[in-house]
Hints:
By secondary structure, the chain is mainly beta. It has strands spanning 14-20, 23-27, 35-41, 44-48, 56-65, 68-73, 77-86, 89-92, 102-114, 117-122.
Amino acid sequence: xxxxxxxxxxxxxxxxxxxxxxxxxxxxxxxxxxGGSIHNIFGATELDFSYADISGVVVIDVTLAFGELKLRVxxxxxxxxxxxxxxxxxxxxxxxMSQTVNTSKILVITGMSAFAAIKIKGI
Length: 123
């Protein structure tokens, strides 16, 4: 007898947005955030992780064109970027947190950015 296996996940643990000529502001409240993807074309996305938590390595894949991504992350998270850029910028506006960063909480931003900006701020 074959039995189908159903995999479920909490949608609050992931982000998946597509913005064209628009804006989204979202507060992530998941205590087990898993990552996701963000697509902005002439758009802006602002994510606030003040009430969220992660464990291990979490990846957010971005595709930005003439847009902006703003992230507010807790001081004890490590943020790494691996973004291919063309006429784009990544700004990490957090203070030097090398003493307080938790290496078991790593947020990785990957993808591509053209004529766009990624701004990372502390809480």
